[in-house]
Design brief:
single chain, 486 residues, alpha/beta, nicotinate phosphoribosyltransferase, six-stranded antiparallel β-sheet, six-stranded parallel β-sheet, globular
């Protein structure tokens, strides 16, 4: 890094500096689970890359500052015009929302050796707890701050030089052959300035695409703040957290996917935010729910009542909470009702073998008699070559591929001293419990199992889950190894 970095913005200074799906999920939580308590846990999947004490102290100071961050009137207006599925009631809630890190988040540093003082390295633990509706917005800022702390104090052998050009070149390589993609790099970005530079480069690539008539398109960014700053569309629907929370609250893993889908449709309506995430408890279990008909009691009421908080039950009209409503089978739905698979625009692939996933979805849609061209959003550790590979495979099966490209864009650096790869952190924060029960994720790859091991084993047994291990799914080396030639 260079001395100029001291003049650049650091930390988090906007609540919208987060991924869109955190807002859409918070909207659902406000409606149905305003009183549910949850906890979150932090995992470093690259355990050899640790913070030193100076990085930890900076991180703690930045987390404390989150208490001062709020949504401005300009930001609220952006949400009103760009995210019309977020109701006035939810936006009113957001307008007065504040994080309370002193009460909700505890960070600790356990030294394991080193020179002592600021250079002493250690393990960091982060525990977040509180009401789900009040703590759901911590994940993305915390992850971004941890990454920024590491590369600000621990690995300083890098520079911003060339980041705009590099992003521009990657954008061109994706857009010219017709890839449709969005920027998904908030969680593991090197820092705020890097993501800003990357989006500048991607916008230049889109200008090239417009000028040259390329069929590819930069559809937007998952980061709501940067979408506002750069005049892009905020992109996103739902995360694993939604399915994990609903499953823990209900303790009904056999029906958790369907219940979570019902809540989603009950909140936003059919065909809105219609990309379904399939792998929380394995894609085969999800598809059993996806083929069922949408019951009438989860049809969202048109207009603002769609996303009123559940505490205002008089305004929910005919919408009944799926947890309290009976679990219907597809044969008992109204004859004219559609299935979730028919209504949803497509699915997101986030673990396991993408090529097998393409085949599975093609077979599923064929079995369900769905002729409409459906989307697959690929979002698992992508680069240009993988996007092109999955694009060809999906199109060969009559599916429309799109891509959410993250760390490859916002944390792609080399060491100044050697020219070799500067490896990103692979870090995650996941919901760990809800309503006092463990929240777990299984996914389509054993390397992404998350949560209490006993609960994971129990859920696998209950769902008849078939263990899968994908050769490309080693989380410790997902983004390369230190010293590799780029």
């Amino acid at each position: 890094m260079t001395l100029e970095t001291s003049q650049l913005p650091e930390g988090i200074f906007s609540l919208l500096d987060t991924d869109l799906y955190k807002l859409t999920m918070q909207c659902c939580v406000l409606k149905y689970f305003p009183d549910v308590a949850v906890t979150y846990s932090f995992t470093n999947r690259t355990p050899d890359m640790k913070l030193n004490r100076a990085a930890f102290n900076w991180l703690q100071a930045q987390v404390d500052k989150l208490a001062d961050v709020s949504v401005s009137e300009d930001e609220l207006q952006f949400l009103r015009t760009s995210c019309t599925y977020l109701s006035p009631q939810y936006l009113h809630f957001l307008s007065t929302f504040r994080l309370r890190p002193s009460k909700q988040t505890k960070l600790s540093f356990s030294p394991i050796g080193g020179a002592g003082g600021d250079d002493e390295i250690g393990d960091v633990t982060i525990h977040t707890e509180g009401l789900w509706v009040e703590t759901i917005l911590y994940e993305i800022p915390l992850l971004a701050l941890i990454s920024e702390a590491y590369f600000k104090f621990c690995d300083r052998d890098w520079t911003y030089a060339g980041q705009v050009d590099k992003a521009h070149q990657k954008g061109v390589q994706l857009l010219e052959p017709g890839c449709i993609f969005s920027e998904f790099g908030s969680r593991r970005r090197r820092d705020y300035h890097t993501q800003d530079l990357v989006i500048q480069g991607l916008r230049q690539a889109q200008d090239d695409a417009n000028h040259n008539g390329w069929k590819g398109k930069l559809t937007g960014t998952s980061n709501v703040h940067f979408a506002m700053k750069h005049g892009l569309t905020p992109i996103g629907t739902v995360a694993h957290e939604w399915f994990m929370g609903v499953a823990a609250i209900t303790n009904d893993y056999e029906n958790a996917n369907e219940i979570a889908l019902r809540y989603w449709v009950a909140t936003f309506g059919e065909g809105v935010l219609g990309i379904a995430l399939t792998d929380t408890y394995g894609t085969p279990a999800f598809l059993r729910a996806f083929k069922k008909k949408i019951p009438s009691f989860t049809t969202a009421t048109p207009g603002p009542a769609t996303t009123l908080p559940s505490t205002n039950t008089d305004s929910l009209a005919t919408t009944e909470a799926p947890v309290s409503a009976p679990v219907e089978h597809s044969s008992t739905g109204k004859p004219e009702s559609k299935t979730y698979a028919q209504v949803f625009t497509g699915v997101r692939q986030d673990s396991g073998d993408p090529l097998n996933f393409i085949k599975m979805m093609r077979e599923f849609y064929d079995e369900e008699g769905i002729k409409e061209k459906k989307l697959i959003v690929f979002s698992d550790s992508l680069n240009v070559d993988l996007c092109l590979k999955y694009k060809a495979a999906a199109e060969a099966q009559g599916l429309q591929p799109t891509f959410g490209v993250g760390t490859f864009l916002t944390n792609d650096f080399v060491q100044q001293s050697t020219g070799k790869k500067s490896v990103p952190l692979n870090i995650v924060i996941k919901i760990a419990s809800a309503s006092g029960r463990a929240a777990v994720k299984i996914s389509d790859n054993i390397g992404k199992n998350t949560g209490d091991k006993a609960t994971v084993a129990d859920v696998k047994r209950r769902l008849g889950y078939e263990e899968k291990d994908w050769a490309g799914g080693d989380e410790k080396t997902r983004w390369g190894k230190a010293g590799e030639t780029t």
